[in-house]
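$ ./design --mode recover --in tokens.txt
reading tokens...
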């Protein structure tokens, strides 16, 4: 029941709506209002999004608003805003979602161009979120700076929000009314402007390219005085070069933008990750090619990957249900051992293999650790793909250095055979992993990690006794 609030009125601080206590208005848009609210059942703030009373009278808009929650709720990813709940109260549709304390890339770019390394970092993180959504069969269809959130906390997190006009790939035809284009036209792919064309993930590649252009130059790729001119520009005008708009932008980005904004989807990058990788290469043209020979240096690649990318896989996440010191110590040790095995056992030949590994990494990591490892991920993934990285664990020994009810430090000695395309036999090595585990919502997650490659022993050294 709506408690003390008339339908159609703005909610005021202290009022309760659908079980959420309103704290303040966050923003107002064409679709409705967003409030900062407090969940009365759980100790967490939420962003409460209400569909406007006027637009809610349109059955199509109501269905689209409900589809926003259903589609976004399917996407569990550290860089996608989480949907907690949705419902209808006194004829008002609402969605409760993760509250992000911060700003957005739209506000960031209002003050002018963003440094290329910052722009590439933002685009790279959003690309991971989009590729994850595409694999789940969901298009975003409204990628733009305003929908990229940046947290105030340091290190800052980058999150993608507002799947309000997203639709499942298998619902592309007929899911929206003919003639309606809900995407923001400044970033809309040409095929989005024709309701008879079936679209795919490359519409998001195009929009992400427009977003990169905007971040690099501080200007939209196509400027127009009316909708007709803007549509004509996306369909027919030459693709602008960011270096001509902002001479400080490296010219290598011109080719990246030309590919991302190609009029024909077939000429674009096939995934957002490909676009992000191309942008990253512009800033690192002198980066040495991935090492494929001699094999003596190969263990260093694995050691580096373990250091930067290690985190708990799903199989390494354990529930903690007891305050007993013995129980939480054992749970932390078991979780650490499980993900130490997971990160040390892999066979990466393709980008899909690397992406699957990255998803496992993120699934068991704290947000702090995820933010830390993002910067080196693309380079390391490419290196491992290039050498066809493989690793098989033969022995694993773990010991607890210290632990409390919600933090633990674990040392693991991992004996594994590592190999690559040029060395199928492989080399046996021992790596010592020092893992900091943190209990978050009842799960033990990786919060920090360091490693030391000990030597090419065939057995692990005897660890110190468990404390």
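writing sequence...
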């Amino acid at each position: 029941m709506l408690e003390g609030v008339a339908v159609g009125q703005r909610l005021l601080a202290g009022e309760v709506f659908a079980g959420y206590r309103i704290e303040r208005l966050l923003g107002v848009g064409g679709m409705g209002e967003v409030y900062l609210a407090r969940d009365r059942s759980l100790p967490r703030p939420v962003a409460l999004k209400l569909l406007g009373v006027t637009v809610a009278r349109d059955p199509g808009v109501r269905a689209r608003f409900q589809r926003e929650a259903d589609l976004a709720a399917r996407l569990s990813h550290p860089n996608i805003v989480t949907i907690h709940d949705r419902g209808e109260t006194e004829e008002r549709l609402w969605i409760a979602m993760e509250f992000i304390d911060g700003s957005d890339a739209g506000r960031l770019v209002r003050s002018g161009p963003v440094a290329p390394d910052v722009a590439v970092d933002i685009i790279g993180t959003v690309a991971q979120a989009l590729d994850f959504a595409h694999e789940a069969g969901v298009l975003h269809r409204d990628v733009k700076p305003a929908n990229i959130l940046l947290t105030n906390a340091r290190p800052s997190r980058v999150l993608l929000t507002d799947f309000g006009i997203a639709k499942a790939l298998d619902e592309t035809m007929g899911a929206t009314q003919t003639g309606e284009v809900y995407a923001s036209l400044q970033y809309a792919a040409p095929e989005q402007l024709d309701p008879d064309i079936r679209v795919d993930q490359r519409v998001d590649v195009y929009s992400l390219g427009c977003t990169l252009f905007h971040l690099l130059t501080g200007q939209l790729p196509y400027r127009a005085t009316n909708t007709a001119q803007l549509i004509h520009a996306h369909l027919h005008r030459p693709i602008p070069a960011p270096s001509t708009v902002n001479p400080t932008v490296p010219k290598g980005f011109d080719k990246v933008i030309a590919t991302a904004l190609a009029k024909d989807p077939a000429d674009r990058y096939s995934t957002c990750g490909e676009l992000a990788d191309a942008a990253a290469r512009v800033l690192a043209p002198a980066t040495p090619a991935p090492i494929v020979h001699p094999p003596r240096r190969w263990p260093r690649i694995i050691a580096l990957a373990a250091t930067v990318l290690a985190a708990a896989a799903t199989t390494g996440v354990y529930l903690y249900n007891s305050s007993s010191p013995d129980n939480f110590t054992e749970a932390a040790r078991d979780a650490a051992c499980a993900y130490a095995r997971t990160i040390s056992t892999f066979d990466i030949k393709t980008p899909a293999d690397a992406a699957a590994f990255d998803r496992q990494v993120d699934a068991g990591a704290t947000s702090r650790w995820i933010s830390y490892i993002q910067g080196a991920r693309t380079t390391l993934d490419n290196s491992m793909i290039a050498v066809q990285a493989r690793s098989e664990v033969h022995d694993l020994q773990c010991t607890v250095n210290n632990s409390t009810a919600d933090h633990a430090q674990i040392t693991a000695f991992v004996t594994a055979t590592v190999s690559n395309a040029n060395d199928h036999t492989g080399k046996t090595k021992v790596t010592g992993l020092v893992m900091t585990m943190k209990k978050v919502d009842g799960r033990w997650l990786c919060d920090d990690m360091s490693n030391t490659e000990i030597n090419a022993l065939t057995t692990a050294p005897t660890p110190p006794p468990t404390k």
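exit 0
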